[in-house]
Structure formats: C-alpha cells, structure tokens
Amino acid sequence: MIELYYWPTPNGHKITLFLEETGLDYRIHPVDISAGDQFKPEFLAFSPNNRMPAIIDTAPADGGEPISVFESGAILVYLAEKTGRFMPGDVRGRKTVLEWLFWQVGGLGPMAGQNHHFVQYAPEKLPYAMQRYINETNRLYGVMDKRLAKVPYLGGEEYSIADMASYPWVVPWQRQQQDLDEFPHLKRWFEGIAARPATVRAYEKGQPFSSRPSVTEESKKILFGQTAASVSKG
C-alpha cells in the first residue's frame, strides 16, 4: 500500500498519474496546504521541506520497514524503480528520461509556479515580474515543442515519468498566459496524455478537494509568508 499525502496541485497530480497508470494500491491523505496542514509535526516528520506530495510505502521491495519519500521527482523515480515501469532499463534511455524529469523539477515547475504567483496571487501587479515569468514559461513550452517534434514523448518513444512530471504543469496553460496552438507538437502530446484513462482517473481523484473554497487572504499568508520559522514549528 502506498500512503499518499496529497493535494490537487500540479505536483500532487504527478503522483496520482503514476499510481493510476500502474494500478498500485494507494490511499490519499489530504494535505490542505491553504489551511496549513503541511506544517503539522506528524507531516514534517517525513516531509521536512513542508511540501506535499510525500508517500509512505508500507510494503517496500526489500521487505523491511516502511519507506517514506518526499519531493515529487524523487517519488516518481522511487515508484518507477519499485514497479519496473515508466523508466527505461537501458542506460541511455534511463539517462534521457532522468534529464527531462530534472528539467521539469528544476525549470518548468518553478518558472510556471512563479508565473502563477505573480499573475494571480501577488498583492500588487508587478509588470516586470509578470512578463519575466510569462516569457520564461513560453520559452520552456518552446523547448518541449522542439523536443516533441522529434519523438512522441519527452523521454523518447515511450510514455514515462518525465511526461507525468511535466503534463500537470501544462494543464493550466491559459492561466500561464500561453497558447497551445503556437506549439503544435506540444499540443499533440498534451491532448494524447489528457485522453489516457489513467489521466482521467487521476484528476477525478482530486475533484473532492478541488471543490473547496479558493485561495483567501488568510491562506495567502500561509502559502506565501513562509520563513525558516515555519519549518521550526515542527
């Protein structure tokens, strides 16, 4: 059983995409980040960066004690190795998938996240910051489009954890001030993943939590006012 600590954000969706594709047994434990659940001591005990998602594998491959994993990229690698799926076994294929996975966790996610912040949530509109991250998101979409003009998926010929990591960050393309019609190869890839039954199921799993109240002024303080003191509470 995989105990999944989750909220329906792009990083949370990455993990449900994998779990639904593989059919692993899992149970969702909601971590309401707008309410500050990520700062609870019991969560910080295995997710020290006070971020979700995180998992606890109660039946690890070595048969030992449960294993906890935090950080979405690390979770995807762990689960791919556990199941032997969505990660090539050969050294070259594995290298390529890991390149694009790290490209997402180090580039697309952070840049699109800053795009979301300055365009939607910042208390004052800062044109320089907004344009900076809209443009960088656009550049990264271009990188994906160029790659996907050559191969069906980011990692090559087969769907992989690199695609699972990137897809949820393209879902809010309109909020990111992008136009998928400008990126035909990316659009083909995006629509293909959206139509996968496992993708549909993964996003359905987030619906009960997505219907909760939107970000409020109080939740903004929780989400965007964190310092070292926030971590030390746990």
TrEMBL record:
<dbReference type="InterPro" id="IPR004046">
    <property type="entry name" value="GST_C"/>
</dbReference>
<dbReference type="Pfam" id="PF02798">
    <property type="entry name" value="GST_N"/>
</dbReference>
<dbReference type="Pfam" id="PF00043">
    <property type="entry name" value="GST_C"/>
</dbReference>
<protein>
    <submittedName>
        <fullName>GST-like protein</fullName>
    </submittedName>
</protein>
<dbReference type="InterPro" id="IPR040079">
    <property type="entry name" value="Glutathione_S-Trfase"/>
</dbReference>
<feature type="domain" description="GST N-terminal">
    <location>
        <begin position="1"/>
        <end position="87"/>
    </location>
</feature>
<comment type="similarity">
    <text>Belongs to the GST superfamily.</text>
</comment>
<dbReference type="InterPro" id="IPR010987">
    <property type="entry name" value="Glutathione-S-Trfase_C-like"/>
</dbReference>
<dbReference type="InterPro" id="IPR036282">
    <property type="entry name" value="Glutathione-S-Trfase_C_sf"/>
</dbReference>
<dbReference type="InterPro" id="IPR036249">
    <property type="entry name" value="Thioredoxin-like_sf"/>
</dbReference>
<dbReference type="InterPro" id="IPR004045">
    <property type="entry name" value="Glutathione_S-Trfase_N"/>
</dbReference>
<feature type="domain" description="GST C-terminal">
    <location>
        <begin position="90"/>
        <end position="214"/>
    </location>
</feature>
